[in-house]
Amino acid sequence: MTSEKLEHFKRLLIDQLRQHTQHIRDDQAAALDLTDDGVKDSVDMSLMDVNKEMALRLGERESQAVADIDQALLRIREGSYGICARCGQVIDERRLEAVPTARYDAKCQALIEAENGDDTNPSL
Ligand SMILES: [Zn+2]
User: Fold this and answer.
1) Cα(31)–Cα(53) distance, integer angstroms
2) Architecture per CATH, 3-120
3) Ligand 1 centroid, distance to 111 Cα (angstroms)
């Protein structure tokens, strides 16, 4: 991959990182706001807990996304960005445009998802 291309993907990743860290700050602020509310009756209380739980869970998902972006930026520094971590083939640039954090080419991703099928089921 050319250094111009690497710069391009680095910019995409940093943009995404900025968006995600903004989300995390908003979520944490929302969670804090909820805990700062005064005494409520039991119905409001349980609603409050649900909202807080959702905000925290969203935060976890955002944290995972940030970790993925961090890993991708590390691979750019190490020179392994855009190379499939499983088979060593070059990852299609169109795939990287769509998913800049991709660690695998489409073929290996499909195989991995088939192996870990249960993990992709929504938990809610
Ligand atoms: Zn592969």
Assistant:
1) 8
2) Up-down Bundle (1.20)
3) 9
Instruction: Dump pLDDT digits (tens) for 48-92.
Output: 677 777 777 777 888 888 899 999 999 999 999 999 999 999 999
What's the 72 CA to ligand 1 centre distance in angstroms?
16
Domain spans of the chain?
A: 3-120
Is residue 84 within 8 Å of 108, Cβ to Cβ? yes
CA-angle at 113, arms to 103 and 76, nearest 5°: 5
Asked if 91 and 104 count as a contact pair (C-beta separation under 8 A), the reply is yes
Distance 103 CA to ligand 1 centre (A): 9
Q: What angle do CA 7, 87, 75 make, to 5 degrees?
A: 30
Residues with Cβ–ion distance below 5 A, ligand 1: 84, 86-87, 105, 108
Please give the distance, rounded to the nearest whole angstrom, from the Cα atom of residue 90 to the centre of ligand 1.
8
